[in-house]
Amino acid sequence: MRNVAHSTVSEDSVRIPVWGASLTGDLGMPEGASGLVVFAHGSGSGRKSPRNRAVAAALWSGGFATLLLDLLTEAEERIDSITSEHRFDIELLAERLVVAVDWATRDTRTAPLPVGLFGASTGAAAALVAAAARPNEVRAVVSRGGRPDLAGSALGDARAPTLLIVGGRDYQVIQLNEEALRQLRCTKQLEIVPGATHLFEEPGTLDQVSALARDWFARFLTPFAGDTFVER
Question: Is residue 172 part of a domain?
Fold first, then answer.
């Protein structure tokens, strides 16, 4: 696996048009990137989340570009902070994520790169719905402490190899991920990080998440990884 020094990573703010508004994202591009990972954050989080940025840094070291994206507009974020009405709207979040994937396939910086999705909490469900909607574009999915069960029928439709990562002390979410794993019909794996709670705040646990995600994308996020999917 390649290791890329952070000094070789360029970061740019991007704006992605979406139905009369725009989404804000941070695009990190290591030199010679071999793939792009688009992040879908969970409820109450955003592109500046220290946890997501830590995972992004680990992906840079593996030679992957990242797009950390706010799936809600600034106005929607303000409303959601009071009412929480958007953070569980999986259909809306997935639609926005599809727009971001489509943008990435057109932008000259990212168009040549195979695309993967990294979803946290409710963002994991949005990632799976988006993967089902864009089977030729999305080559791999990783969920961190996610709610893949909220993806509904998309669980049976998604074809991108999917890794579910859950904390060993996040008992209810483990059960939800085990049920989602049974419904997935793609290459799939469940990894439980011992001693970790939902946010992976315990020392060393987020490093394990980062390593698992980096290895999964290194395995599947290649120019030809999407040609054949194996059901397990």
Answer: yes
